[in-house]
Structure formats: C-alpha cells, structure tokens
Amino acid sequence: MSLRVAMISEHANPLALLGGVDAGGQNVYIDAVSRGLAERGFAVDVFTRREREDQPRVVPLTAGVRVVHVPVGPPRFLPKDDLWPLMPTFRNAIERMTRAHPRYDIIHGNFWMSGWVATELAERWRVPAAQIFHATGVTKRREQGEADTSPSERIEIERETVRRAQRTIAQCPAERDELIAEYDADPHRIALIPSAVDLERYRPAPQRAARQSLGLDADPDAQIVVYVGRMVPRKDVRNIIRALALLKSRRNGEGNGRLPQLYLVGGETEDPDPVATPEIGILRALAAELGVAELVTFVGRRQPAELHRWYSAADVAVTTPWYEPFGLTPLEAMACACPVIGADVGGISFTVVDGETGFLVPAKDPAALSARLEMVLRDGALRERLARAGRERVEREFTWTMAARRTAALYVDLLNEGGESVSRSVGKNEQIAFPRRSTGRLADSPADRLARRGATT
Ligand code: UDP
To answer: Is the CB–ligand 1 distance for residue 21 below 6 Å?
Structure first.
C-alpha cells in the first residue's frame, strides 16, 4: 500500500493558470513535487481552497495525485492576504472530509497559512509535518514595508510553525540562514531541498525557429531581452526598463548598435491589460517617460508549454526582483540555454553562477544591469558559453526528480523517527522500512468516495 501524503496549499492550486498575481512558483512546485512523489510510489492529495462554483470536489492530476477543492469561503478568487481568517474552517473542513479514517502518513504544508493548518492536523492525527514557506513574512516586511498587506499575525504564525513542524524545507542557503537567524529554527530540523525545472518542457530550441513561431522579428541581427514572471512591484520590472533606457542613451551617445527589444511575459490576462494588471500600466508609462516605449512589448500571460520558445528566442533573460525566495524563472531560462542576468538576492544568488551561467547584479541598480546587458548583448561567444553552462548546471543540480527524491528521503527520515518499522513499497522495486503507525488506514476515505463519484459542488 502506498504511503499517503496530504499536501496542504490554501491558495496555490496546481491546476491554476500561471502568471497572475497569486499564481507562480508555488503552484509549479506543488505540481512537480506531487507528480515526482507519485512516481516514487506515494499517493498525494493536494488540499486547496475552492475558488469557483464549477470546480469538481476532487480532480485527478495524474496517477497517484489528486487535487481536492475544499469548500471554504466564497467560491471565487480571494487575494491570499484575505485568507487567514478562513484557516480554522479550512482545517476543520479537511478534517471532516477525512474524518472516518485519518489515513495520511505525512502532512506537507505550503506557505505560512497552510503551515499552520498542516501542524494542527499533524498534531491531531499524530503524524509528522514537513513545512515549506515559499516566502517568509520577515523578508516581505523588510522589503515591502508599508506595502506589505500580510496579516499582522503572519510572522508569529511562521515562528510557531517552525517550532511545531518536524522539518522545515529551505529552498536555498539564504532561506536556511534566514530560518535560523530570524525564526530560531534548529539547523538539524531544516532540510535544504532546492526547487527545480522540468528539463523536457524547458529545452533549447533554435533561436530563429523560436522567433518565427512566436511571430517575432526574423532579422538575425535583432536582439531580444526577455522577462518572464508575475507583474508585481517586487519583481521590479521597472528596473529593467530603466536599464534599457540607460543602454539606449549610452548607445545614442556612441552612435552605434541596434537596440534590443524587451519582451515582458506575465500578467493577469493573455492580452496585456493595464486594468486587470495595474503594474502593466505603470510600466508602460515609465517606458514612455524614459523614451523606450517602442522597445518594450507587453506579451501578457503565457502558459508553461509555450514558455520555452520565449526563452529560446531571447539572447538574454533578465530578472531583478528586490528579493526572491527561490525563483524558478532563472532555472527555466538556463534549461533553455538562455543566459540569465539576475539580481544577487535569495535563491538567484544560488542558482545563477556569476560569470558562468549568467551574471548577478545588485537589485535596484539599473546602471549595473545596463552594463551587464551591454556586455552580454555585444559578445556572441560569451552568450554561447553562458548558455551551455546554464543548461549543464540545471541538468546536474536542479531536476524535479532530484527534488522529489530528496523530499521522499525526508519523509522516510520523519517516518523512521516515529517508531517501530514495517516494510512498505514506495516505488518500483523499492522497499524501505517505515514505522507502524496507530492511525487506521482503510481502503476508502470520503475523498476517495468523492473521487469515484466525480462529485461536483
Ligand atoms: N509563469 C508562467 N506564465 C507567465 C508568467 C510566469 O507560466 O505568464 C511561471 C514561470 O514560468 C514560473 C512561475 O510562473 O514557473 C514563477 O515562478 P518564480 O519562482 O519565478 O516566481 P514567483 O511567481 O513564485 O514569485
């Protein structure tokens, strides 16, 4: 019988469209890690809040992974900062859905609110909890100050969750250091598990073909800079536009060089819409004010299946957020053999090797970014070297198979800390010793029954 994982994620649903304000890396993580765990023989149920009337209660994602839409709060999108008051109901609803047989072996909390729910359920069900924050309240408060709309309890709840969870997963060394320094985490209870990239989905394509398929400038001398990500102030796309303006004024002064085009992928809608995505309006005004409007194209939100073509079409990918808990887009660019210029913050400092797979620049420093852009755009041999090294690096260090294997190993450690062992199969031909637990594990649970019925709400 498979080991069962309850993956709790109140707002980030692996079935959601990506690129909007509250749908980014966390959704990708839950999707990829759950699939990877299922391939290793685990059965994963992802519990997330129902956001639409027509969402079925249970949706199979792949063999071994189901998304359970928990009917809590109104059946419509709510900003994640409004969800905290709903969490006790969310916890109770999950408990009610699984009441007959609390049959999960591990609870995996995502983000701070589900961290609280995960530790609550773990204590009630007497099973271990692993927690990953994806972003921390301390960093957000430091970087966003007044603009941070997180509930005031956030940091205290995060501290409590670090205390209550058996393990906290850090995605990069900077996050591990922060958990220790700011949250008093016990270093022995932190697992460093970097997130990753899907190497088949994100693969290099010939630049010309990629440009053609996207309907971009076919001139082989045209140069393209791409940003992929959510359109929110902290991603500081404004910094990229400022750097482009600096590049333009320097080139004008020197009177040479065709200027690159900047493509911005992301936003709430397929067609770039400043009403749906206010940041697009701000960026558009800034580009006009700085005289680079004709160099900037807003693409709108795009789904992952298309993104490899954007990275492959580009000469360089840029991301310079104020802070970045991990940052999947630099890995995606590297996987597509696209050099990256990234801000030297958080996970980017860990994934991008300065001078080898791209360049690191200080955040909020358009002059530094502009200088690196100039260097990379002018040197084809350098770009080729960075591109090759980037792909090699992700193949070596950042695959989802590795992340899932490390997560599975973490679960095994936690279960083995629990007591007497029994042998259970967790994958093809793999037998690992697991503790015998007191929780009943019957073949059927309310979630199973709902899944069979395909019940809708
Ligand atoms: N993304 C996407 N379509 C878009 C914009 C972004 O699929 O239009 C994806 C992007 O490819 C990446 C994720 O959203 O996988 C963003 O993750 P990242 O860790 O870079 O940033 P976060 O959004 O978590 O802050």
So the answer is: no
